[in-house]
Amino acid sequence: MTTLDNRKKASETRFVLDAEQEFKAAARRNKLLAQWAAPIIGRDDVDAYVTEVIKSDFEEAGDDDVLRKVSADMNKVGSGIPDAELREKMDELMEVAREQIADGK
User: Fold this and answer.
1) What is the largest CA-CA distance in the chain?
2) What is the DSSP letter of 94?
3) Domain total of the chain
4) Residues of the chain predicted below pLDDT 50
């Protein structure tokens, strides 16, 4: 293998690892978001709600499907939390999730 081939292979490996870490972080963020939202919307079955939120992320690419799910649930109970604030919470929890993944938690 040439040096160029080695660099290409290393770059591809890094890309795969980064993508895997982002997938794990998004799933962790969705779990944290559901745990945060469950008491606000009056869900006692937190684990079931976590599953619902995580499943909602598979509807389409990106975070909009998760935002729609949690926002709709919050609107049903009149939480008064606007989508912009919910998006900020998602961003905040994504950073927490990335840190937890990086720390091996």
Assistant:
1) 62
2) H
3) 1
4) none
